[in-house]
User: Which sequence fits this backbone?
């Protein structure tokens, strides 16, 4: 995998019950080695660290102590039981576009020194509209593809309850990236979502095309989430109050 790439492809969602609802859109993200962020957009008027149509700056990701994003990621991984101090850490996320940033999911990949395959992924999840964040550590073994099952620990969608497991399926090989997640409750799969992307070196020409053709992607994703939420509600899928608010209301009673 290159140090900095444009990863293009599709994002898809599929609700299975109590009503069916699905969509898929063209989608792109940035893959960047966290030790090479200073080189991002060098020589381009369209991409960079500030005052550009597309901006990638480490302070937009994973809040916490530490000036460098790499240090913050390694620290969070350590809190979850992984030693990421050595080796390579790469990020897959959306940049800030024309001042707008919206990142429901950012993935940080760790490669041990000399390794060609990752041994772990830190998934930074942000919910809408509460803008809370939570991290899941996904341990990976072998060359992949990898499958990881974890209990849900963080409220994301007001249409999915907390009592379920996440079934992750991750593939990374020859600049091909795919990440899929299935939500399982006691009755089985209820929701599926994923991304399938192909990485290309972030040349100045490609960065310029992506900035002008897809510069409003973050806005479209943000608006689309609310539009599809409305459609789910109109199809009769129950709206669930945030667990924190439910607990507060229960205590007040």
Assistant:
């Amino acid at each position: 995998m290159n140090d900095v790439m444009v990863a293009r492809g599709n994002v898809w969602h599929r609700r299975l019950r109590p009503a069916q609802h699905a969509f898929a859109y063209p989608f792109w993200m940035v893959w960047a080695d966290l030790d090479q962020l200073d080189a991002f957009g060098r020589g381009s008027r369209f991409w960079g660290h500030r005052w550009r149509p597309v901006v990638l700056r480490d302070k937009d990701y994973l809040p916490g102590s530490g000036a460098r994003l790499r240090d913050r990621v390694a620290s969070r991984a350590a809190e979850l039981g992984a030693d990421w101090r050595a080796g390579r850490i790469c990020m897959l996320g959306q940049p800030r576009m024309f001042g707008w940033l919206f990142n429901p999911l950012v993935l940080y990949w760790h490669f041990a020194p000399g390794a060609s395959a990752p041994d772990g992924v830190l998934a930074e999840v942000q919910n809408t509209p509460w803008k809370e964040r939570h991290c899941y550590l996904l341990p990976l073994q072998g060359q992949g593809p990898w499958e990881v099952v974890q209990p849900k620990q963080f409220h994301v969608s007001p249409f999915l309850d907390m009592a379920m497991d996440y079934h992750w399926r991750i593939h990374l090989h020859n600049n091909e990236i795919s990440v899929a997640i299935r939500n399982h409750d006691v009755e089985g799969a209820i929701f599926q979502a994923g991304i399938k992307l192909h990485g290309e070196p972030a040349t100045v020409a490609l960065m310029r095309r992506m900035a002008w053709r897809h510069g409003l992607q973050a806005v479209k994703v943000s608006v689309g989430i609310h539009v599809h939420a409305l459609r789910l509600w109109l199809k009769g899928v129950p709206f669930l109050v945030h667990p924190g608010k439910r607990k507060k209301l229960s205590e007040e009673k």
About this structure: The chain has a mean pLDDT of 90.
